[in-house]
Amino acid sequence: MTFSDAEKAAIVSIWGKISGNVNALGGEALERLFLSFPQTKTYFSHFDLSHGSADLQRHGGKLLSHCILVVLASHFPSEFDATVHAAWDKFIHAVSGVLTSKYR
Questions:
Q1: A GO term (biological process) for this protein (predicted)?
Q2: C-alpha span between 31 and 28 (Å, rounded)
Q3: Rounded distance, CA 23 to CA 9, Å?
Q4: pLDDT tier at 87 (50, 70, 90 boundaries)?
Q5: What pTM, to 2 d.p., does this model score?
Q6: Which among 94, 80, 93 is positioned nearest to 10, based on CA atoms?
Q7: Could you tell me which of 71, 67, 75, 73 has the C-alpha nearest to residue 85?
C-alpha cells in the first residue's frame, strides 16, 4: 500500500498534535470502545476501567481504528476533513495489517 503526498501530509499534520497526547487520546478511545461495546470490558477485567484511570492511559496505544478516528475527529474538527479522514483510515488499516500478521 502506498500513500500519496497529500495523504502523507494529512497524516503528518495530525500526528504532530497526537504525539504529545498519545496516552490521553488512547485512553479516551478505549473509554469510547467500552461505552459503544460494553461486552468488550470482559477482555480487560484486570484493568481499572474508570474514567481517566492509569490503566486506560497506559494501554491507550492499543486501540480500535474506528475509535481512533472518532477521537481524532472530535479533537481536531477543523483539520479532520474527508481527505484527512480517508488518509488516516488508510494508515490505520496498513498498521493493523502489519500488527495482525505479526501476532497470529
A1: hydrogen peroxide catabolic process
A2: 5
A3: 23
A4: very high
A5: 0.57
A6: 80
A7: 73
